Amino acid sequence: MINIQMVDLVSQYNRLKPEFDAAMDRCLSAAHYINGPQVGEFEDQLAGYLGVKHVIGCANGTDALQMSLMALGLKPGDEVIVPAFTYVATAEVIALLSLTPVMVDVYPDTFNIDIEQFERAITSKTKAVVPVHLFGQSADMEPILAMAKQHGIYVVEDNAQAIGAEYTFSDGRKARTGTMGDVGCLSFFPSKNLGCFGDGGAITTNDDALAPRIRMIANHGQSKKYYHSVIGVNSRLDTLQAAILSVKLGHLDQFCAARQKVAAGYDAAFKTVADLTPPTRAANTTHVFHQYTLKVAAGDRDRLKEHLEARSVPSMIYYPVPLYKQEAFKHYSLADFSLPVTEELSDQVLSLPIHTEMTAETQGHIIASVGSFYAEESAGLSV
Questions:
Q1: Angle at 331 between CA 343 and CA 77, to 5 degrees
Q2: pLDDT 10s digits, 3-39
Q3: What angle do CA 104, 110, 114 make, to 5 degrees?
Q4: Fewer CB within 10 A of the end CB, N or C, for the chain?
Q5: What CA–CA distances, in Å, run from 335 to 79, 329, 347?
């Protein structure tokens, strides 16, 4: 029986084990576990890879979002526009800071924030927008940046799922996700394309004044020990995690290429299945496939998921409930508030296993399992 994982971190670890062992041994031998030299080294390496001036490591991607909004000086009641089809952390930190999350719809093909919806949601209270580069490809940043500049709105990129993706502007200029707005926020959760061995995150910015403020906030609001200039938090990227991330960063382009190869295999297999819609690649961005997410038509999503589980194929639903329907966020919108695309996607999306270690045998089993569902459907058999 093939042991199929959504993300095979064990095989990746075994393949890169000598590099991990050497990196960890260097940390353990020095016993400099907090703010060791590996943290600064990783920040510099990541800044070079992304082409951004400043990288500030932190404890996780949620902290990265929270500290970014704190650094921008937003006040309680200020509105922050966010897509409703995203992980809860994107909106959670907005509410946590007593800001007001204003949820808008997304495009039905790329799943990223709908530009017209964003523009219509802007009011005199709007102070920021958080475009999410969902599942591995960039939101359409050129019009977002233009509208933000026009209205004096900060842009905080949620880049938790798309590190390594590249956006192309209409003039041909290219930029990595997380480097185009005022700040970018990264998560290094283990299953991410660049993941550590626990929690980790980072903030990116080209703003020379904002970077030291973010670094202070991450360190209890201090730039000099025991002298606290602002209210801060305690959010550090551990030395061991930084060392692991430095190793993986050297392989990130290969990781992305491996995921893209798996995605291409799925595309070829499913392009003729009438009730499946493979993920769309926007013309102005590369896609690094943190998730491979299909749209399953005709109300078959949940039955397909059960069919796959019976054949030892895991799958995930990202995300089954729109944010504004979650109990925690109900008071931010009217009772009859509805975003039709978000609700349709919540009923249709299904993500299949995708990772850097996928073998042809494993992918073949997954594809065959999906195919058998539709073969049985067409034959009129129960599944």
A1: 115
A2: 899 999 999 999 999 999 999 999 999 999 999 999 9
A3: 25
A4: N
A5: 19, 11, 20
Domains in the chain, ordered, with CATH? Answer: 9-104+111-249 (3.40.640.10), 253-379 (3.90.1150.10)
Tokens encoding 9: 């971190």
Question: Dihedrals φ, ψ of 209, to 5°?
Answer: -85, -35
Q: What's the CA gap between 278 and 50, in Å, rounded?
A: 28
- Residue 210, phi-psi category: left (phi > 0), alpha (psi -120 to 50), beta (remainder): alpha
Which residues of the chain are modeled with pLDDT < 50? 382-383
Nearest 10 degrees: CA dihedral of 116, 122, 128, 130? -30
C-alpha R_g of the chain: 21
Distances (CA, A) of 145 to 103, 179, 247, 333: 18, 12, 33, 26
Is there a contact between 190 and 196 (Cβ–Cβ < 8 Å)? yes
Q: Looking at residue 345, what is its pLDDT?
A: 98
Rounded to whole angstroms, how far apart are CA atoms 93 and 20? 33
Count of residues in the chain: 383
3-class SS at 202?
Answer: strand
Residues pairing with 57 in the sheet: 202
Q: Which of 5, 34, 25 is nearest to 244 (CA)?
A: 25
Identify the three-state secondary structure at position 337. coil
Q: How far apart are CA 86 and CA 158, in angstroms?
A: 10
User: Which pTM was predicted?
Assistant: 0.96
Diameter of the chain measured on Cα atoms: 73
Burial of 331 (0-12, 13-18, 19+ CB in 10 A): exposed
* Cis preceding-peptide flag for 33 (omega within 30 of 0): no
User: Which residue(s) pair with 167 in the sheet?
Assistant: 175, 285
